[in-house]
Write a structure and sequence with these properties.
- Helix 20 links the parallel strand 18 and strand 19.
- The protein contains 24 helices and 22 strands.
- The longest helix is centred in the N-terminal third of the chain and has 51 residues.
- It is 53% helix and 19% strand.
- By secondary structure, the protein is α/β, with parallel strands linked by helices.
- Helix 9 packs antiparallel against helix 10 and helix 15 packs parallel to helix 17.
Length: 700
């Protein structure tokens, strides 16, 4: 049933029960009719035999056999089913006969009553001829001589045999069965046709809905079906049309959303989310196109790599929301000046790219200068703060000499950094033999060398002592940790040879962590050599980039735990400039580390903004005065006055002072007269490998 369709099921339900009922009724009717005919035929045979026997009594008793023959023939003529009629006397002699002979074995049967035999195609009935109690003189003739000899004790004087044919009965049975079957077939055909007609009225709307549902599933959302039915089917039709309409509306709305999302994704694939400008991928695709044009047709194009100046101050001071707002405003400002055929893109962070197609270098200079002046004149206001923004522009003429866009981007990046190194807020045109470019390429080479140095352990740590030069109540010994690199030939490379490249290419975080980890490891060795006791304090320099690294605190805490170094034995040095630029993050880090027990030293104080107001908020333990003031205090009264002022302020704030670049005894005497607490310089001690310090401090 599960494989049948609804129309087949309706026909099945309509025809099969009717067929079963018809078969049952027909079978019953046939059987009943046949039974009735059988009974009727038997009853006729019995009646004929039972009536013929007394009718033959006279002829047998009177011996008037001549009247028996017409009687027998008369019976034969009135009944078409009779095959033969036989009258015999008691002795079995034939007195009258008509038709076929009676089977011999039946003639031998003598009965006192009515008997019958069913021989298949014939039925044989026999009845005795009984002598009634009538006097002989009632007959006109004397009884036959043989009568006396024929009379049985039970008065049976003869026998009547009647043979009936069952052929007509069988024919009637066949005809009856055939007629009934024809009636059943006709009835089934009629009922099947009516069921088909009725089922079609039910199934056609359902099949129409099924086809509509199929097409609806195939995406033909405009499908509708006529509401021609009544009752539940009409409810289904209306429901389908309502559902199809709602699905079409939902599909149209969804398709509209998909189209809109596709447009947005396509736009996002080629544009920057924040500014709406082209993104780096799309810019590089266009850059590759114009490079191919320059190589094949000799066309002139210019690429300007623009990096905002002072953006980091806005971002760190006012937060990322302000930085994002500044980038959006600058993007609008620049985009309004760009020609329609040119491409302005945000390459990442505060870096923008401008592709000037079919433009000479001289014209590009004019456009770039206008953009630089627009940015310079722009003032960004956030809440109660106002910022002046500049832009450094590296310009590259796109020529067939470039093999790929990577070399163009590298050249533009180099030229941009050359503009920054030359004072920021200016334009620098890339020249292959430019000294600034050579310097930039040299720094780029340092990137791989620095990474390799950390992997191959080519960095090494040195220590320079910080000694007390005034009377201080402090028994601890201080050493500044200094970083050096050892070349393959064993020569030492000073940090200023690679630190600028590390700062420019975001490697300072990795370097600072290397220094912290190895300083902790060496201090652990110092503790192991001195029975877990030491009065030494190691000072570690932190770059401004690391101060802005939110994961640095966890890293320092982890290293202190791994090497079991007392936090009070570690002092971190930060520069005044980096502390002020990242003031919020710096203060958060300083308070957290001081809570652990670490100390802080403010390095190069006086070289930057020299804002004493910031000093009030920073929880520093030591103030290291810029060596540019210290080294000439013996000959420069202004430098001496600066040192005195810095020391006075620090002492009033209960901060210990350290003078660096102490390179003569005369300087030491002046610092002692001022009251500076500690000194550091070649006159007091040169940097030595940290292993040497650990060995010198070993307790035997």
């Amino acid at each position: 049933m599960n494989i049948l369709g609804i129309k087949s099921r309706v026909l099945f339900l309509a025809i099969i029960p009717a067929m079963m009922i018809a078969i049952l009724l027909t079978t019953y009717s046939i059987q009943n009719s046949i039974s009735v005919m059988n009974v009727a035929l038997h009853e006729r045979g019995r009646v004929i035999a039972s009536q013929l026997a007394p009718a033959s009594e006279y002829g047998v008793v009177a011996g008037n056999y001549a009247i028996l023959q017409p009687l027998v023939q008369q019976v034969m003529s009135h009944e078409s089913d009779i095959l033969s009629v036989l009258v015999t006397d008691y002795a079995g002699r034939t007195l009258a006969v008509s038709g076929k002979p009676v089977p011999e074995h039946i003639l031998q049967e003598k009965s006192t009553g009515l008997m019958e035999w069913d021989l298949g195609e014939t039925l044989v009935f026999t009845s005795p001829i009984m002598r009634s109690l009538i006097e002989l003189d009632d007959y006109s003739l004397a009884p036959s001589a043989a009568l006396a000899n024929s009379v049985n004790r039970d008065n049976r004087i003869g026998q009547v045999y009647v043979v009936l044919s069952t052929n007509r009965l069988m024919h009637l049975k066949s005809s009856l069965i055939l007629h009934n079957l024809l009636i059943v077939i006709i009835g089934l055909l009629v009922s099947g046709f009516m069921a088909w007609r009725i089922g079609r009225g039910i199934t056609f709307p359902i099949e129409t809905m099924a086809l509509a549902v199929k097409r609806l599933g195939e995406g033909q959302f405009g499908m509708r079906i006529p509401e021609t039915s009544a009752g539940e089917l009409q409810t289904l039709q209306r429901g389908f049309n309502t559902m199809a309409g709602q699905i079409k509306e939902a599909h149209d709305e969804m398709q509209q959303r998909i189209n809109e999302a596709t447009r947005q994704l396509r736009h996002q694939a080629h544009h920057d989310d924040l500014t709406g400008l082209c993104n780096r991928r799309e810019f590089e695709r266009r850059l590759e196109r114009v490079l191919k044009s320059a190589q094949e047709h000799g066309t002139h194009h210019v690429f300007c790599y623009m990096d905002l100046d002072q953006f980091k101050i806005v971002n760190d001071t006012c937060g990322h929301h302000a930085g994002d707002d500044l980038l959006r405003q600058i993007s609008l400002l620049l985009n309004n000046r760009v020609r329609d055929r040119d491409t302005l893109a945000r390459l990442g962070g505060d870096e923008f790219g401008l592709l000037l197609e079919n433009c000479a270098v001289s014209d590009a200079f004019i456009i770039a200068e206008e953009l630089r002046e627009m940015v310079q004149d722009f003032r960004y206001i956030h809440q109660d703060k106002m910022f002046t923004i500049g832009v450094s522009i590296g310009m590259v003429a796109i020529t067939p000499d470039f093999n790929n866009i990577g070399s163009i981007m590298s050249a533009a990046d180099t030229a941009c950094y050359a503009a920054k190194d030359n004072g920021r807020n200016r334009i620098h045109l890339f020249q292959a033999l430019d000294e600034d470019v050579a310097k930039r390429h040299g720094e780029m080479e340092w990137v791989g060398r620095i990474t390799q140095a950390m992997e191959d352990n080519q960095f090494c740590l040195f220590c320079q002592p910080i000694l007390p030069i005034a009377s201080v109540d402090d028994q601890q010994r201080y050493f500044e940790i200094l970083l050096r690199k050892r070349d393959a030939d064993g020569k030492l490379v000073p940090p200023m040879a690679f630190i600028p490249a590390a700062e420019r290419y975001d490697l300072m975080i990795s370097i600072d962590r290397w220094v912290i980890r190895n300083t902790m490891a060496n201090y652990r060795q110092l503790l192991d050599n001195n029975h877990n006791q030491s009065d030494c304090v190691f000072t570690i320099n932190l770059s401004g980039v690391s101060l802005n690294d939110h994961s640095l605190l966890g890293f320092i805490h982890e290293q202190l735990t791994i090497f079991a170094v007392p936090p009070q034995s570690i002092c971190f040095e930060i520069t005044e400039t980096s502390a002020i630029v990242n003031l919020g993050n710096t203060m958060e880090l300083m308070f957290a580390l001081k809570k652990l027990g670490c100390r802080f030293l403010l390095d190069d104080f006086g070289s930057g903004m020299s804002s004493f107001a910031y000093l009030k908020n920073l929880p520093v333990d030591f103030l290291k005065m810029d060596g540019a003031y210290v080294k000439d205090i013996a000959s420069n009264s202004i430098d001496l006055a600066m040192v005195q002022s810095i020391h006075s302020i620090a002492e009033a704030m209960h901060i210990k002072t350290i003078a660096e670049f102490v390179e003569s005894a005369e300087v030491v005497e002046l610092l002692q007269s001022i009251g500076v607490h500690y000194g550091q310089g070649f006159h007091l001690g040169r940097p030595v490998p940290i292993a040497q310090i650990i060995d010198n401090l070993r307790v035997e």
